[in-house]
Amino acid sequence: MDRHPHMSGNSALRQNVALIALVSLALFLADMVFGILGPVGGAMLALVSMASWVVLTGYWLISLKPAGQSWVRFLAQGVVDFLMVFLVMPLALMLVVWAVIELGRLLQG
Q1: Which of 57, 50, 62 is nearest to 2 (CA)?
Q2: What angle in degrees, to the nearest 10, is found between the helix axes of 38-64 and 11-34?
Q3: pTM of the predicted structure, to 2 decimals
Q4: 6 pLDDT more than 60
Q5: Are 21 and 49 in contact (CB under 8 A)?
């Protein structure tokens, strides 16, 4: 049974897409190392791998989105959370470290 009633697709389809994504990624990495498929085969395999990962990301996002929330609000909240974690928090940490260093210099002399 799906986690949310608004999820599309069934679990067998998701499992097949996940299997295609993992196998195509493994073959793509092997092709990058050994060059077994040539440039055209490698490019087609990269497209298959990227497409299956995009589909898996869509399934993942659908499973994370609450049923009563709009997509715009859900994605905006995700962007804000991303910026908080990877931009604001490191800047705040650097500011704290800088303040501690300056306080140490002030107390020394």
Answers
A1: 62
A2: 150
A3: 0.54
A4: no
A5: yes
| Residue bearing tokens 């500011």 | 95
Handedness of CA 33, 37, 38, 43 (dihedral sign): negative
Residues 11-43 pLDDT 10s: 777 788 888 888 888 888 888 888 888 888 888
18 neighbors 56 (Cβ within 8 angstroms): yes
Asked whether the predicted pLDDT for residue 48 surpasses 90, the reply is no
Exposed, middle or buried, 69 (CB in 10 Å: 0-12/13-18/19+)? exposed
Three-state SS sequence of the chain: CCCCCCCCCCHHHHHHHHHHHHHHHHHHHHHHHHCCCHHHHHHHHHHHHHHHHHHHHHHHHHHHCCCCCCHHHHHHHHHHHHHHHHHHHHHHHHHHHHHHHHHHHHHHC
